[in-house]
Specification:
This protein is 59% helix and 0% strand. By secondary structure, it is mainly alpha-helical. The protein has two domains: 52 residues, Orthogonal Bundle (Arc Repressor Mutant, subunit A), CATH 1.10.10; 116 residues, Tetracycline Repressor, domain 2 (Orthogonal Bundle). Helix 1 crosses helix 2, helix 1 packs across helix 4 and helix 7 packs across helix 8. The mean pLDDT is 86.
């Protein structure tokens, strides 16, 4: 509850957010913050962990009805992931710009079998997202030229490369989620046999 109330404040104020602002937003006394967190830095680290974590995106993916058309399912997933990436970028950039250079502690790796390479948090998050996208694609496996796993990898690649253009190139806005899904599912040729 404290972290959820703090994340929007961190996006707005960065590390300059005060514990008084946090307490008001959370509807608690300021002392309660320090019963839950050692200090403000630990709370800010928890906010970074929340912002970069993919659990809420996975819940949104899981709520997409599988009986919708594939393009609609993937567009909903793209919108959820774009919102996540924007929020993550805002929180992390705001903290960095205001002097907070720490980040959340990396959770301990799960036990591995012999010879299996270690998997970091970023890789775990990517694999969880990929698996969730595969589940959204799976009902249409027979209609695809590529496996759902390959389509999911292309989907994530397109979304993760959807970077805004520099201010000097305002006419080059990133593709919308609908445009990305159209390119993913239909390519860019008006008539696929024409080129």
């Amino acid at each position: 509850m404290i972290v959820a109330a703090t994340v929007p404040l961190v996006a707005e104020h960065g590390a300059a957010v005060t514990t008084s602002q946090i307490a008001r937003a959370a509807g608690i006394g300021e002392g309660t913050i320090f019963r839950a967190f050692k200090d403000k830095d630990e709370l800010l680290d928890a906010c970074v962990a929340e912002a970069v974590g993919v659990d809420h995106v996975l819940r949104e993916f899981a709520s997409v009805p599988l009986d919708e058309p594939l393009a609609a399912r993937l567009t909903e997933a793209a919108e959820a992931l774009c919102a996540h990436l924007e929020r993550m970028g805002t929180v992390v950039s705001s903290l960095y710009a205001t002097g907070h250079r720490r980040g959340p502690a990396e959770p301990a790796d799960r036990p591995r079998t012999e010879g299996e390479p270690p998997v970091d948090g970023r890789t775990r998050s990517f694999l969880a997202l990929r698996d969730a996208v595969v589940e959204l694609i799976e009902p249409d496996r027979a209609a695809l030229r590529l496996s759902p796993e390959r389509v999911a990898a292309a989907f994530l690649g397109l979304l993760f490369s959807r970077l805004p253009s520099p201010a000097s190139c305002p006419a080059h806005e990133p593709l919308t989620p609908e445009e990305l899904i159209s390119v993913l599912l239909h390519g860019t040729l008006a008539d696929p046999g024409s080129a």
